[in-house]
Amino acid sequence: MSGDRISGAAVPYLPRGVRLHDDRVRGIRVLLAPERVIQLDPVGHAILSELDGKRSLAEVVLTLCTRYEAPPEQIEGDVQEFLRDLMDRRMVFLEQEPEGAQP
Amino acid sequence: MRDDPAPRDIDGNPVRVGLPMAMLAELTHRCPLACPYCSNPVELTRASAELKAAEWADVFRQAAEMGVLQLHLSGGEPASRRDLAEIATAARDAGLYVNLITSGIGLTEARLRELDGVVDHIQLSLQGIDAEMADWISGYGGSFARKMQVAQWARAIGFPMTLNAVVHRQNLDRLSEMIDLAEGLDCRRIEVATVQFHGWADLNRRPLMPTQEQATRARAVVDEARQRLKGRMVIDYVPADHLASFPKSCMGGWGSTGLNVAPDGTVLPCHAAQTIKGLAFENVRDVPLARIWHDGAAFNAFRGTAWMPEPCASCERREIDFGGCRCQAMAMAGDARATDPVCSRSSLHAQLRAEAEAEAASDSTVLVYRRMTREKRG
């Protein structure tokens, strides 16, 4: 359900068709998506750069806490809010459970 | 006569020039479909005048250097170009986000595979919810079945897809089924765009103009679906222009963020700009793209707000909608500076409403299809 907290075990990722881009002409970082260009602030860029489709949300938060020496509650709140908004816009997907047995 | 090289609007006021964000590349005006609301000009460009793939590649590099981030490959039908994969690859190599706007007709599974990893996103047009409606509107028998096949191939390859439903009086009552179809095709987005009555659509106002009741119901359908599909599918909705109180900010402001390149290389501030008499448009075959963007008289003509007459000049919305659509102002008021008659503050608004209501009350189903007259040879 939309609006719920994202589970710490979920693995967030940028789906195909959504990607980070270094806009050298304007000197900014942007997220490119269908019909959308979103300018990223340093926090947004830091969060999205950590999404590798392998690590869980909890692991991403932990990495950011270490890197920015910030309290987990604050980072967790920022990450939840930011990713939830992008999920509602279909720019971030979640891998909820581990993949089934490999063929 | 002016020696001053600073960019100036149509009345000689200095303007500020920003950076373009998005470019629409109309690769060709050829198209197997004949949709009666086609956004191409009524005077279509011939195949022999089209830019070659290498010319497009050069345009894409210039665009990326100027700050363009997103490229829309459109037409006509871009798949009507046999060298589409070569053109799309050049766009990707220039660093652009590549969006392919297509009816699907002309794409095969093999051609889609060539575009895998090259095209970021596919926008598939929808003319109707079943073969009967879609083939009638597109003027092309079998188009719906082919389109659905292309959608399945694209989904299997993994392309992210937006369904682009163009709605009007003949199909607007089936909007909820269009949304269901997009969901069934795993689309992340559906764009529901009411016909804009320029160009070909202007020739089809009587069969296509939606009624007020339809527009009201469509709004309710969209609101309900947005709630239900939140987090699963995004719905972008462009309501009927003629039933609004304020105009849309056309192109987000003239010459502010977007540009179009026509099949023959003519560079336009919007796809209908050639309907504005007195504006001269330059061609990338003759002038570098950046110079056209910065110094081109047509691009500067309506930049900023200094050119606006009343009621726009003193309107608090002048930097929200920029007075609306210049082409619509030209068409109705005979002056491209005028307030878009869609605006309730335009002196022509009541007339526009009355005409739209009369057209919507028509029971005409006679369509004027978009057709290219045969190319003369020898």
TrEMBL record, chain A:
Pfam families: PqqD (PF05402). The keyword Transferase does not apply. The keyword Mitochondrion does not apply. Keywords: PQQ biosynthesis. GO terms for biological process: pyrroloquinoline quinone biosynthetic process. Pathway: Cofactor biosynthesis; pyrroloquinoline quinone biosynthesis. InterPro entries: PQQD, PqqD_bac, PqqD_sf. GO terms for molecular function: quinone binding. Monomer. Interacts with PqqE. This is Pyrroloquinoline quinone biosynthesis protein D. It comes from Paracoccus thiocyanatus.
Automatic annotation (TrEMBL), chain B:
Pathway: Cofactor biosynthesis; pyrroloquinoline quinone biosynthesis. Transmembrane segments: none annotated. Its cofactor is [4Fe-4S] cluster. It catalyses: [PQQ precursor protein] + S-adenosyl-L-methionine = E-Y cross-linked-[PQQ precursor protein] + 5'-deoxyadenosine + L-methionine + H(+). InterPro entries: 4Fe4S-binding_SPASM_dom (IPR023885), Aldolase_TIM (IPR013785), Elp3/MiaA/NifB-like_rSAM (IPR006638), PQQ_synth_PqqE_bac (IPR011843), PqqE-like (IPR017200), Radical_SAM_PqqE_MftC-like (IPR050377), rSAM (IPR007197), rSAM_sf (IPR058240). GO terms for molecular function: 4 iron, 4 sulfur cluster binding; cyclase activity; iron ion binding; oxidoreductase activity; S-adenosyl-L-methionine binding. Binds 1 [4Fe-4S] cluster. The cluster is coordinated with 3 cysteines and an exchangeable S-adenosyl-L-methionine. [4Fe-4S] cluster binds at C31, C35, C38. Its EC number is 1.21.98.4. GO terms for biological process: pyrroloquinoline quinone biosynthetic process. Keywords: 4Fe-4S, Iron, Iron-sulfur, Metal-binding, Oxidoreductase, PQQ biosynthesis, S-adenosyl-L-methionine. Residues 17-232 form the Radical SAM core domain. Pfam families: Radical_SAM, SPASM. Catalyzes the cross-linking of a glutamate residue and a tyrosine residue in the PqqA protein as part of the biosynthesis of pyrroloquinoline quinone (PQQ). PANTHER family: PQQA PEPTIDE CYCLASE (PTHR11228:SF7), RADICAL SAM DOMAIN PROTEIN (PTHR11228). NCBIfam families: PQQ_syn_pqqE, rSAM_more_4Fe4S. Interacts with PqqD. The interaction is necessary for activity of PqqE. Belongs to the radical SAM superfamily. PqqE family. This is PqqA peptide cyclase. It comes from Paracoccus thiocyanatus. The gene is pqqE.
